[in-house]
Structures are given as structure tokens and as C-alpha cells.
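Posting this for the archive.
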Amino acid sequence: MEPSRWQLYRRGLNLLEAGFEVEAYLLILATWNFARFRYVMRTFKLDAFGEAIEKTKPSFERLRDQSFATVDFDSIAEDVKKIYTRFKSLAEQTGAAKIMHFKSPRLFVMWDTEIRKRYRIPNEGPDRAHVTHDPGVRQSISKAESQRVRGDSL
């Protein structure tokens, strides 16, 4: 990961912790989804984005203590779908996934084309609420992570 993007990631988390959610998400989208977000910005609705943040707070709160390694994915499916659908309509698929990761990094995997390539997961498939919660994708990620821990190349 490039040092400057990592620094901006940390600054974005600080903004989020300080209650500046809109600013934090815009920073993460502008630095971690810039290739796509520059097109979204042409018609971006900042008021609707703020409303999406407010409307998803109860779902994020219910997911607050969850982690990818231990969560029962069926039990959180409705909240995941609500969050993803709300942000996808404003920031597209990758932007929604990045926002979800940023708000709940222990639960949601940072997700985009390059990450899919790293885990050898095809860049196509169903457009559903955060594809990393799909059992097949979870298995691929777990396998790749165990290879990484052992030192095998991906």
C-alpha cells in the first residue's frame, strides 16, 4: 500500500472517530476509489449522502462488535443489504464496499478489482449486498489468507 494513501486512511479514521463522517467517507472515496469516484462526483448528491449516513447508523450500530472471522453472516444479512443498497445508489458498488469497510473494518473487507485479483476471485458475479459475505468468496479469502500466513505466494 502506498504510504500516502495509508496516511490518508489513518486520517480518515481519525475524522470518523471525531464525528466527521461525511468528510471521512469523502476522503476515503477520493483516495481509495478515485478512479471511479471522479465520475460519481459529477452528479453526487451531498444531502442524500448525509441522509444515507443517518439512515444506516442503526444497522452499523448493530454490527459494531462483529468481525469477519466469527460473525454468523445469515444473522446480519438484512443490515448488510440495507447499508450496501443505500450507499451503492450514491457511491456505486466499490464505493459502498469501501464505506462499509471504513465504518466497520473488522467486519467488512476492503473490496475492489485489484483486491479480487489478489484473491483470485473473478471480477464478475452477482451484484448483491457486499459480495465478500458470499460463502464461496469467504472460502477463497480464507484460503488465500492462510497461504499468505504460511508464506506461500498468492
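The helical segments are 3-17, 21-32, 34-40, 46-63, 73-103, 113-118, 135-150. The mean pLDDT is 81.
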